[in-house]
Amino acid sequence: MGRLFLQAVIIVCSILIVMHLVFWQGYDSIFLIICNLICVAIAGILLMSKNLIFNPLFFLFLTLLASVLLRSYFLVYSDDVYVLDYLRLNENVTSFIWPSIILLLGLMSFMLCFTLFQPRLFTMARNFSSSIWVKWKVDLLIWVLFGISLTSLIVFLKYSGISGFDSLLQNISKKRYFVVEGSDWATSLGYLRLLISLSELAFYILIIDTFQYKRKFTMPRTALIFGLGFINVFFPLFSSSRSSLLIFFLNLFIILVLYNRLNLKLFTLGVVGSFFLIIAITSLRAKKQDANYSLYNLIEKVAVNRNMLGISKTAHIINGVPHKIDYKYGSTMVSWVYAPIPRSVWPQKPNVSVGKEVGTAIFDAKRNSYSGGSGVPPGIIAELFINFGSVGVIVLMGIFGIIYKTLFFQFPLVINSALDPNNVLFYLLLVLNLAYVFFGGSVSQTAIDFLAKIAPTLVFVKLISRKGTYIDLVR
Question: Is 349 within 8 Å of 339 (Cβ atoms)?
């Protein structure tokens, strides 16, 4: 199915390339041809891989279809004032051509190094994969994590000024930032968010444990599944985080596919439910920003934004260096070191992400009562360019491709023709989050997100496991 999809994308993009050559429109055609070539090249490399659907790069490819290919056509053909102002910043398409070439070369470097490099399995990973989960330990851990995440959610609601159901309805689906006295920047209450996010980890552990060891859906276990599921759906809806909600549902879909629990009815229900929840968040967000909105505007806002590895924001950032933003020479890639210090303790803490500077210098974004912040995450290609220029993009993307391959090589989903629960858990926590945060966010943001997910997972898996017998890995 995955190969058929990639082949279809290659055929469609190839037809579009031919059409742009036949119906030549100058720089517009050049730009669109490059964007189609990006998708053709990456789809072609992906066809060389095994176990395509669960290849971490497959999810990266899906984000590129939306953030590069789809947006490129909005850039060229849309005459909507919102698109011209928000995506193009009223610039000519010619300014996007050179950045799109850098994007193509950077992604090709990453994909080729990921595909061709053959890493080795570390001893720690071998030991990690040879354990069995103990039911009573899993049950105890899940109840504890559920209590922590639920309590943290209640505290977060109180910080947000929610005093009842009416105020909840009035304040739902808003970005949540809180002003810190003596600081130029707001705080997002990161530690509370981290504690709430434990519900996601707990949900995955509970579902994997149920399917892996064929546990019965007892009343307490079923109640936990629904309770944790509610938190994982409600909090993204409350904080207007479409990406978190989408990743949660995609990970649930992956679990069901891996354990052969997905049927047509469940698949249809999941797709329809996810679609309406995403539209609901977008609708609430649009309503708070603009009273005049329609179904077309909602669809446009889903497609036309600055999330993921967007072709438009990447181009604007590259074109803005160095006359709007100075070269950083690697400083933005190590700022995660002081991220754990709360802004309430260090009000003048420097910005962890370069997104704040990008937002104000490139996109003239302003803080307001709705968004609370002005940051625009640059995406990995633009951030590497800010630090080391075009050569740095090509070289470092190749290095990151090797690191990415090495990381996922340590946690194979299948051991001796059977799924390994530890590795399935790590796959869920890493594959979609890295595809979204690393490629569309920043290096420091990725490091923070990686540590926030991996550190507690290592501890919790150790607590619920007993030593098993290691079996040679089969790929």
Answer: no
- pTM, 2 dp: 0.81
Give Cα separations from 428 to 54, 268, 274 (angstroms). Answer: 10, 22, 18
CA dihedral sign, ordered 216, 125, 256, 224: positive
Asked whether 473 and 121 are in contact (CB, 8 A), the reply is yes
- The amino acid at 112: L
Burial 73-94 (b: 16+ CB within 10 A, else e): ebbbebeeeebeebbbbeeebe
Rg (CA), the chain: 23
The answer to whether residues 365 and 374 touch, using CB atoms and an 8 Å cutoff, is yes
Output the six-digit token pair for 280.
């609901």
Query: Measured between alpha carbons, how far is 305 from 48 in angstroms, rounded to an integer?
Result: 32
Instruction: Find where tokens 């994969």 sit.
Output: 129
Q: How far apart are CA 313 and CA 306, in angstroms?
A: 6
Task: Identify whether the C-beta of residue 397 lies closer than 8 Å to the C-beta of residue 21.
Answer: no
pLDDT tens per residue across span 346-400: 777 777 778 888 888 888 764 443 344 567 888 899 999 999 999 999 999 999 9
Cis peptide bond N-terminal to 56, omega within 30: no
Please count the helices (runs of H) and the strands (runs of E) in the chain: 19, 6
Pick from 244, 242, 254, 243: which is nearest to 207 by CA? 254
254 within 8 A of 428, measured Cβ to Cβ: yes
Asked if 240 and 214 touch (Cβ cutoff 8 Å), the reply is no
**Rounded to whole angstroms, how far apart are CA atoms 103 and 97?**
10
% pLDDT > 90, the chain: 23
User: What would the pLDDT profile of 257-297 be if each residue is shown by its tens digit?
Assistant: 888 887 666 666 666 666 666 666 555 555 555 545 555 55
Which residues pair with residue 132 across a beta bridge? 466
Count of residues for the chain? Answer: 475
Contact 332, 377 (CB under 8 A): no
